[in-house]
Amino acid sequence: MLKNGLRNFLEQQYPEKELRSWFDPLTIDYGDLEKSVSVAFPHAFFGTWFTAHGKTALEQAVRDYISPEVVVLYSTPLSEPAPVSASNTPATPCVSPAQEKTAPSVSKVAVGSQFTFDTFLHNAKNVFPVASAKEVAKAEIPPKYNPLVIAGPSGSGKTHLLRAIAHQILKQRDESALFLGNIEDLAALYQDGSPGARFEMRKQIVQKDFFLLDDLQRLEDFPILQEELIALFDAFHDNNKQMVFCCTGGLTTHDFLLPNLRSRLEWGLMAQLKPQDMDIRIKYATNQLKENQIKLTNDQIILLCQRFEDFRLLQGVLLKLAAFKELMQTEVSEYEFNQIIEHTDKTKSTPLTSDIIINVVAEHYMLQPKDLLSEKRHQKIVLARQIAMYLTRTLLGSSYPALGRIFGGKDHSTVIYAVNKIKNFIVKNKDTKLLINELKEKCLTATK
Fold first, then answer.
1. pTM of the complete model
2. What are the pLDDT digits (tens) for 216-254?
3. Which of 32, 117, 236, 242 has CA 20 to 30 A from 96's CA?
């Protein structure tokens, strides 16, 4: 849950492909120590690479998303977490050569007990896809609908339904009969591209009786898998073994699919999930708040569900509220609630950007936006630049490295100094506080 919330936060600052490389392989959860987050690497070598490519960004995101007081603990799956500060290097314990060279396995299935049909909230508009999923989960031979393709927009519940099917199948069959994963999992199994290794992996997979694959749209990033997927499809279909695929959008929207693969996917049943309605969002939010013992008023719950029509965004803001309460060990005040809402809200017609903030500040000081991005050291320009950095940090949650890049490649320490300087001015000077509030209002108004 925490990982999903952090990823939603990081998506505002980093490209999708970058996050897939250094963020997605991590295992992230709350640490055993108070005010700590545990981060596990898939293996020691990844930890060494991560130090250079993702460590600074992750730690800054943890501080911005949860609290500056949170400590990040690093480990590999075979080691105990070792605490590190924001400036320390993560521990990368040794792994034996035998462990490093373990062949890819397709036997382990991680479904998650929370992903069941009972916990999938829906109303009349999504009765058909849910009924289709339940029918497939009966594991009849031969299967009635093969393949079942569950499509829908991001956040509509495709992954939940896929895992609910798996959860139901595992009540009747051993986990060795089931393949459950996404396109990246499949790509990892085929990381050795040699024909012999590819054939051996295919032989392992087709021994399963059920093939459940998520994120079919990600095939665009792994085009080499399309031919292999056709071979797997034929093997499962010819042997009356159930297949279920999930994808964002309909098949017709993915023009990168090979015609032979597309036609096979269209043989079966397409079930289209629609976005969750207001009543479902309120029910989900109420359940989550109750589970995490977070006290919000009815008006606040309605406000949340009105602003965040995208279900994933709603999940993200609920995770953030839960993380704040758990790590800070205090109730969510009205002020903190409003701050979290404002920093997460994407309902504005025009998103707030650093360019808008820079333009607003430059106009106030009768300067050109390019002056704030320059190396000019005139007192008026320096102050305007520092205020713009502070506002960008406060309103957008930008990391210090990101701020440095935005403002013409400024040094990390320069950015920190600027933000802290304005923070101190606000505390000590009433006029500065009024000015910052006025500029904040102008920035937010400029997006409407």
1. 0.53
2. 988 887 777 888 999 999 999 999 999 999 998 888 888
3. 32
Distance CA 387, CA 372 (A): 10
Q: Are 51 and 440 in contact (CB under 8 A)?
A: no
Instruction: Write the CA distances from 43 to 25, 30, 50, 96, 103, integer angstroms.
Output: 10, 20, 11, 11, 14
CA of 190: how far to CAs of 65, 224, 225, in Å? 35, 10, 8
Q: Any residues with CB less than 8 A from the CB of 352 and at least 6 apart, and which?
A: 395, 396, 443, 444, 446, 447
- Whether 2 and 29 have beta carbons less than 8 Å apart is answered as yes
DSSP string, 156-193: SSHHHHHHHHHHHHTTTS-GGGEEEEEHHHHHHHT-S-
Distance CA 170, CA 111 (A): 9
The answer to whether 245 touches 180, Cβ cutoff 8 Å, is: no
Q: Which pairing describes strands 269-272 and 71-75: parallel, antiparallel, or unpaired?
A: unpaired
The secondary structure of residue 147, as a DSSP letter, is S
pLDDT average per 10 residues of sequence, the chain (448 residues)? 81 80 84 80 68 85 82 64 39 38 48 77 88 91 90 86 91 89 83 72 91 89 85 93 91 85 91 85 87 85 81 80 79 81 60 87 92 90 94 81 85 87 89 88 74
Rounded Cα gap, residues 166 and 212, in angstroms: 8
Q: Is residue 347 helix, strand or coil?
A: coil
H/E stretch holding 141: none
Three-class SS state of 330:
coil
Separation between Cα atoms, residue 315 and residue 344, nearest integer Å: 11
Tell me how far apart the alpha carbons of residues 443 and 238 are, in angstroms, rounded to a whole number. Answer: 60
| 257: Cβ contacts below 8 Å, ≥ 6 apart | 219, 226, 251, 265
Among all chains, which residue has been given the structure tokens 């008023």? 297
The answer to whether the beta carbons of residues 114 and 144 sit under 8 Å apart is no
